[in-house]
Amino acid sequence: MVGQRGLNRTAVLAAAVVILFFASVLLGSYTVTVPDFFTIVANHLTGGAKIPGASFIVMENKLPRAVIGTMIGIAFGVAGALFQTMLRNPLASPDVIGISSGASAAAVVAIVVFGASGAAVSGAALAGALAVAALIYAISRGAGGTGRGNAAGNRLVLAGVGIAAALQAVVSFLMTRADIRTAADVLVWLNGSLNSATWDRAGILFPALAVLVPAAALIAGPLRILELGDDAAAGLGVRVNNVRLALVIVAVSLAAVATAAAGPVSFVAFLAGPIARRFTGKASLPASAMVGALIVLAADYFAANLAPLLLDGTVLPVGVVTGALGAPFLLWLLVTANRKDA
User: Fold this and answer.
1) Which 8-state DSSP code applies to residue 29?
2) Type and span of the H or E element at 136
């Protein structure tokens, strides 16, 4: 009964993602009808006649923006759910344990010190996230062996928090040394933005997700057993350390490629798992992926279409919206959870 309800609610989330995806493409400051949309896409694929203005807006702005927003939402949602479920700690998300900070610091170094831009910044962010993840994992293992129960997860979270604080200091120092134009570019990237979404970035992100999302699905079985605790999982034949390492690699890679594509969009990985759990009644990677996509698409629609009406034409980075709305929503989740437990 619970399983069927979870499947039905996950299907509802998937339908909501599809609706919001098309709303992002068809509505907004420039509206496109459904027939015109399919005509534009068909003509683009077949080399047919283009509709002046509309073809560029849809194919080079709105559609790649929605595609990348959906993919990074899925990546952040699955990454956050993997960390939180594996470590049995709601704080264990890429935002908190330093993965996003590693990507941010590496990207800022590339921009400020080496004058990098575009793909070079994304590559630096990817390398920084992976390097920091390896450092955090090594410190957490070295601080106390394999650990029992929840100890290993807590050490990993604490190591990540400490490293994130140090990397934030590095970012702040580099910002004080940058000129105004460079600092502005850095701030846009640090807040997470889909304003520079292109098909080239989508072409890099899609193959990565095509490998990492099925990998996450394959290790979902041992992940559920790991929720029982390290001792119980080992007693059931799970190689705890090997499984945890595989989970960390997949989760970090998902967060890293998403951050490299759009910057550290805050709170998506942090909130997707808890919201999906409350909606479906259990931990679910597919539901977390859909919730992550919904958060990014909804925040980007507000940032690109509604915020300019309220802020005299200012288009906000999507990360500003997720950060502003994510914190109070997280507090609401905590309050309602406490009431339920009481």
Assistant:
1) S
2) helix 119-142
| Domain membership of residue 131 as a residue range | 2-341
Q: Give the Å distances, CA to CA, from 22 to 32, 64, 222, 262, 298.
A: 10, 12, 36, 20, 12
What pLDDT is recorded for position 261? 87
pLDDT tens per residue, range 85-125: 887 777 778 888 888 889 889 989 998 988 887 778 888 88
Distance separating alpha carbons of residues 58 and 81, to the nearest angstrom: 32
Give mean pLDDT, residues 294-298: 95
From residue 60, alpha-carbon distances to 197, 207, 265, 340 in Å are 9, 20, 22, 47
- Look at the block and give the residue holding tokens 């808890």: 274
| Sign of the CA dihedral with 181 first, then 185, 190, and 195 last | positive
Most confident option among 83-92, 130-139, 293-302: 293-302
| CA–CA gap between residue 109 and residue 47 (Å, rounded) | 41
pTM: 0.90
Cα torsion 310, 311, 312, 313: sign: negative
204: CATH = 1.10.3470.10
Tokens 């997949």 belong to 250
CA distance 120 to 305: 30
Q: How far apart are CA 317 and CA 294, in angstroms?
A: 16
pLDDT at 146 over 70: no
Separation between Cα atoms, residue 91 and residue 154, nearest integer Å: 10
The angle at the Cα of 138, spanning 135 to 142, to the nearest 5 degrees, equals: 140
Q: Is residue 52 classed as helix, strand or coil in its secondary structure? A: coil
> Tokens 């080239």, residue?
200
Query: pLDDT tens digits for 114-131?
Result: 888 777 888 888 899 889
Tokens of 46: 């077949």
